[in-house]
Write a structure and sequence with these properties.
The complex is a heterodimer of chains A (164) and B (103). Chain A is an alpha+beta fold. Chain A has two domains: 1-45, no CATH class; 65-157, SoxY domain (Immunoglobulin-like, Sandwich). Chain A has four helices and nine strands; from the N terminus they run ααααβββββββββ. The longest helix of chain A has 18 residues, at 3-20. Chain A is globular and about 40 Å long. Chain A starts with a helix and ends in a 7-residue tail after the last strand. Chain B has 103 residues and is an all-beta fold. The radius of gyration of chain B is 15 Å and the shape is elongated. The chains are: A alpha+beta (164), B mainly beta (103). The interface between A and B is large, with 47 and 42 residues.
Chain lengths: 164, 103
């Protein structure tokens, strides 16, 4: 099932590699493109935040102090997750000028799951799926108009998704 | 070798909804394989979605995002026929970028 796209990708890589004269050339080219096209480059990954083992630690690493609880954030998660490895999470904020949405699982070994930034013109909503090792709170953090808000909702996990 | 992101984008009343399914193992580094050895952490760390070259969403992931990360979001200003790209990078330095035409 995965054979044909895989093969296609390999062929594409081979063509590019032939053009640039080998694998090392290819890597160097990607590196150079990253430097020459700032629009395509990624912001620096927040290692401290993603390694955080508690909500307090993660919030500090994200530069957030005491976010207010807010009813204007709608956090949709299942009440019970039979499979902790795939828990759907939807965050919708009805506040204007949403700049950031972060999603946490407060009892996972690393609590921060995802952190999204929204340029103007992008709506303040996002859906993704997270892993949960045990029953825990899913927490959504929203930054709107420069201020931080949060909402938490418990998900009961009957089979964890972080073990093996 | 990475696998292309499955992506769909459609416009309703001037708002483009993007649905993407990245193809990635998203290993936490805590899982053990059949012989009891830890499987090294391997996960997408960064992603960026651009519409006609303008960034419409940026994201960073940790190990708590599920295997084959799923994403839905909406932005204003897209038209049918416009080009949308989703690029990601993982903790091993692997990168890929895929494009879809807004329908």
């Amino acid at each position: 099932m995965m054979n044909s796209p895989g093969r296609e990708a390999i062929n594409m890589e081979r063509r590019k590699a032939l053009k640039t004269g080998g694998g090392i050339g290819l890597m160097a080219l990607f590196g150079a493109l990253g430097l020459l096209q700032p629009g395509k480059a990624f912001a620096e990954w927040n290692k401290t935040a993603f390694s955080s083992k508690s909500m307090d630690e993660a919030l500090t690493a994200l530069g957030v102090a005491a976010p207010a609880d807010s009813d204007a954030i709608k956090l949709t998660v299942p009440e019970i997750a039979e499979n902790g490895s795939v828990v759907p999470v939807t965050v919708v904020s009805n506040m204007p000028n949403v700049e950031q949405i972060a999603i946490f699982v407060d009892k996972n070994p690393n609590v921060l799951a995802a952190n999204f930034t929204f340029p103007s013109g992008t709506e303040g909503m996002v859906t993704t799926r997270v892993k949960m090792g045990q029953t825990a709170n899913v927490v959504a953090l929203v930054k709107a108009d420069g201020k931080f808000y949060r909402v938490a909702r418990e998900v009961k996990v009957t089979a964890g998704g972080c073990g093996g | 070798m990475s696998i292309p992101t499955k992506m769909r984008a459609s416009v309703t009343n001037g708002v483009t909804e993007v649905r993407a399914l990245m193809q990635h193992e998203m290993e936490t580094g805590r899982r053990k394989d059949e012989s009891g050895n830890l499987v090294p952490a391997w996960y997408i760390t960064d992603l960026k979605v651009q519409h006609n070259g303008r960034t419409v969403l940026e994201g960073q992931f940790g190990t708590s995002v599920s295997k084959n990360p799923f994403l839905v979001f909406r932005f204003k200003g897209g038209k049918a026929g416009d080009k949308l790209s989703l690029a990601w990078a993982d903790n091993r330095g692997e990168k890929r970028s895929d494009e879809v035409i807004i329908g």
